[in-house]
Amino acid sequence: MVFMNSMVPFDRYARGLSNWPFGGSLESFFDSPFSSTSSEAFPVNVEDAGEKYVVTAELPGLSREDIDVELNEGRLSITAERKESDEEKGKNYLHKESSEWRATRGVYLKDAATQGLSAKLDNGVLTISVPKQDEKANVTKISID
User: Where would you find the membrane-spanning parts of this chain (predicted)?
Assistant: First the structure.
């Protein structure tokens, strides 16, 4: 015999799991913390500075060799990858929260120039300067006969 008072509606059960464990949802517990679909992979800011865009990304603990920046048809992509060194692999950790990960963030800058780009990594902050160009008309008006 099933007692109705022992049943929990599914939406209340899901709401209870939304705070598991310690404030995160059950789904996010199994996700990679640095997946490419997560906006929390690493913070990115885009500033319109008049004649250029200034894009900053916070990438503490990474070197230039761990970061790839690419502009492809107006889409600026930043890929960061942390790999475990052979020295770290040989250690006998009792608890280890750092791991290998890879994350990509991208922004679309429709009037980005392909010349004069620059990037600098300083104290874990990547700063990319993207000059603007005159926007090309991608739309052609066709008259109807």
Answer: none
What's the pTM?
A: 0.63
- Encode pLDDT of 119-140 as tens digits: 999 999 999 999 999 876 566 6
Query: Distance between CA 33 and CA 132 in Å, rounded?
Result: 33
Residue 136: CB partners within 8 Å, gap ≥ 6? Answer: none
How many Å apart are CA 79 and CA 10, to the nearest integer?
A: 39
Tokens representing 30 are 């199994």
- Residue entry with tokens 């906006």: 39
Q: How many CB atoms lie within 10 A of CB 131?
A: 15
Pairwise CA distance, residues 32 & 105, whole Å:
15
**Spatial distance between the Cα atoms of 10 and 75, rounded to a whole number of angstroms:** 41
